[in-house]
Specification:
homotrimer; alpha+beta; Jelly Rolls; five-stranded antiparallel sheet; 25% helix; 38% strand; elongated
Chain lengths: 135, 135, 135
């Protein structure tokens, strides 16, 4: 049955990478979607979604280091609340991802996890999770 | 009813960030989609789609400044028409976004707008807008 | 009829940009989707999907040059298998794309191709291709 859910997440740090894969797989089961798609959407401007490696303890540090390096000096930017870097990083990873659902589960690779990327925490965040079943 | 629309936009500058949220919400109403998804797609190679902050007058300038800084010297690149930076920026933000539709409206956050990102204007641009309703 | 396919691709180089558009259009025909959407998904952490220009012989070189430049020195990063740059580049282009299907074909622009982006080859890769037809 087509369904739209909301995951609520309290982040703890300014920049944080939170694995939400287990919760999304649980919602796939709850929705009883056997075959179809799952669209994930973050309704925030300073957080995003990334699908990446799930077993490397250095991954989050490396991502935030890389983003900081490509953005250069925060003093170059003029956005009103001094949080442009969070807008930039959210824009680079994106706020929307769509994944096939197969045999009742998201068709992720063995090494993939879905991450909520917090770029301006700590905050209370939402991730919308939409399932569309085959006809 | 599932429907596919085209928004036509004449851009005015070489790099420009145009808010198309109102038009997409109007199409959601026109399509009579109550609950489902909306896929936006830009059929161009030097423009993209970004979902970001909707009330910061410095946002566009900061985004174009950041992209320019991360790309480095345009002279490093060899693409045929000297517009590689437009290909790069379109690749970084992407040409496709999918957003849940709930109660007849796109489930955007309060601070989110959908932007057509022009990276090689001025040109006449299209955005395809596809609605898929729940079964 | 809604359908989920897998394209198998053997990459040959460490970084490579492979045009899969023809194969995806062939699957659209095979699925008999007339009007709907196509979701592409890469179930890997060191490869991605990019929709970009289809007739510029310098494009791949320019993309890999740009990514190398924005990432800075690989020695800055600590991921376990020394392949963080592949995770970063996959995260920047993304592993998922959704494209409208119209009159039995993907609604790509005349200059657009769909590329599998290999960032850590050579490897055997999969691309999942999901079609959802209008009701």
């Amino acid at each position: 049955m087509d369904a739209l859910y909301t995951i609520y997440i309290q982040t703890a740090e300014q920049m944080q990478m939170l694995d939400i894969t287990g919760e999304v797989q649980r919602l796939a089961a709850d929705s009883q979607t056997v075959s179809g798609i799952c669209t994930l959407f973050v309704p925030h401007t300073t957080a995003g979604l990334l699908i990446s490696e799930n077993r490397d303890p250095y991954l989050a540090g490396d991502f935030f280091r890389a983003f900081g390096q490509l953005a250069g000096d925060a003093g170059n930017y003029r956005s009103l609340e001094n949080n442009f870097l969070a807008f930039l990083f959210a824009g680079l990873v994106g706020v929307s991802q769509t994944i096939p659902v197969e045999n009742g589960r998201l068709a992720l690779g063995a090494w993939q996890s879905i991450y909520l990327m917090e770029f301006d925490g700590d905050r209370r965040r939402k991730v919308r999770v939409k399932f569309m079943e085959d006809k």
